[in-house]
């Protein structure tokens, strides 16, 4: 039991590492929360710090989730899910930045990738969810919309492909967290004010 509690805490702390904030400080000497959308995530890093840094932040944020599930969690679906969820919560509410972190999409992706090594049948669910994200983004060029649509689809896919109740519950929680963190984006989408991603250059 002590190891499980310790693992949950470590998973939260790993998720809490504010990758975009660190890169902003190291590379530009700025607080990324004061530029662009103000979010501490890969999308804002892409806009403010540039394409290369944005991709790096995306990969590292995803790796946080993957590592906690694939390397830290003990054998068993439930433990992997709990550790992965703790990591996502850490990313969204990071202790290092006053409990105000990113939106959790990249870390959620990493968690799901890690779970594919432990849960049979999850690969096709994740593959379709990623495809939904890509199609939505290619059509709209709006990352938030792609994230919201794929988050909504995830629980539905776990039901359609007959995943366990535990995994379905996780997908519902992750979907709810992503939608909650994107609520300002949802309001802007309804108003037609959500910006499209400029793939050519950073905003600063």
Give structural notes.
With 204 residues, the chain is mostly helical. The chain has one domain. 71% of the residues lie in helices and 0% in strands. The chain contains 10 helices and no strands. The model has no long low-confidence stretch (mean pLDDT 93).
Summarize the structure.
The protein has 204 residues and is mostly helical.
How many strand units?
0
* Helix count from the secondary structure assignment: 10
Largest sheet: none
| Strand-pairing-aware structural class | mainly alpha
Total domains, how many?
1
Termini, distance in Å?
Answer: 48 Å
Helix content: over 70%
Q: Based on CA inertia axes, which overall geometry fits? A: globular
What proportion of the residues form beta strands (DSSP E)? under 5%
Q: pLDDT average, as an integer? A: 93
Question: Which properties best describe this structure?
Answer:
204 residues; mainly alpha; 0% strand; globular
Helix-strand blueprint:
Layout: H1 2-16, H2 19-28, H3 42-49, H4 51-72, H5 77-92, H6 105-115, H7 122-140, H8 143-160, H9 165-181, H10 183-191
Helix pairs in contact: 1-4, 1-5, 2-3, 3-4, 4-5, 4-6, 5-6, 5-9, 7-8, 8-9
